Amino acid sequence: MTENAGKLWIVGTPIGNLDDMTVRGRKILGIADVILAEDTRRMRALLSALGISKKEVVSLNMHNQEERVPFVIERLKGGAQIALSSDAGMPVISDPGARIIRVCRERGFEVDIAPGPSAVSSALAISGFPGSHFTFLGFLPRGKNRRRIFRKIAQGLYSDSVIVFFESPFRLTETLRDLLEIVGDREVFVGREMTKLFQESFFGKVSDSIDRFGACEVKGEITVVLSGRVGQDA
Fold first, then answer.
1. 82 has which bridge partners?
2. What residues contact 157, with CB distance under 8 A and at least 6 apart?
């Protein structure tokens, strides 16, 4: 690759609290010629809060990721600094971008990272469950497919590891009820709106979490951490 070729940056962003934006991450967003983001409006709002203006922000989602590849390659050939960022947290973690990263590396372009906050590692850390062995399931599917995953957990097909997943606030109570029925009354951590003004951290049995979240309307972004087998040590 020529010396004047561009570079692809993977940039983490805050999951809620703006103060969690790293100095390096802000610097990369500031120098980037192009910023790829799933939600361009949210990205522009973040850039404005960081005092960054006049940036080319291009949408990147699961539906247009493939068609964005030629655009990214051409801009990199022209020497552009491109930042692949997320609406919240680390890119590619339940977000688009993996395809572009892979193609850029295959074509010989430099790929670097400015790491930042992650809802997955943050929830796992604050849960108090062992963090040396865990399984991340992303956003769970609905209905029968979700219950099928829970049956695999109950059968030990995930090696009894701690389980981390995201869930919609509208389906949280239903999901917790399925957990109780299929997996049992394990300990669970539910993080709602982590690091934000109205954040909530719940820790207890699955049955207790149903009492807590089933009694009111749930809002915000949800991360759930389910304990491994009973008696699992750190």
1. 8, 34
2. none
Q: Determine the CATH number of domain 119-226.
A: 3.30.950.10
Cα distance between residue 67 and residue 42, in whole Å: 22
Q: Mind listing the pLDDT tens digit for each residue in 22-74?
A: 999 999 999 999 999 999 999 999 999 999 999 999 999 999 999 999 999 99
What does the domain layout of the chain look like in residue ranges? 7-114, 119-226
Structure-token pair, residue 166: 């995201």
Identify the burial level of 66 via C-beta atoms within 10 angstroms of its C-beta, where 0-12 means exposed, 13-18 middle and 19 or more buried: exposed
> Tokens in use for 7?
């570079």
Question: pLDDT for 130-156, tens place per residue?
Answer: 989 999 999 999 889 999 999 999 998
Any idea which fold 7-114 has?
Cobalt-precorrin-4 Transmethylase; domain 1 (3.40.1010)
User: What are the backbone dihedrals phi and psi of residue 138, each rounded to the nearest 5 degrees, phi first?
Assistant: 65, -145
> DSSP 3-state assignment of 99?
helix
The two structure tokens encoding residue 98: 């993996």
Residues 6+ away with beta carbon under 8 Å from 22: 12, 114, 115, 116
Main-chain dihedrals φ then ψ at residue 231, nearest 5 degrees: 85, 10
DSSP characters for 105-167?
HHTT-EEEEE----HHHHHHHHHTS--SSEEEEEEPPPHHHHHHHHHHHHTTTTTT-EEEEEE
Confidence of residue 1 (pLDDT cuts 50, 70, 90): low
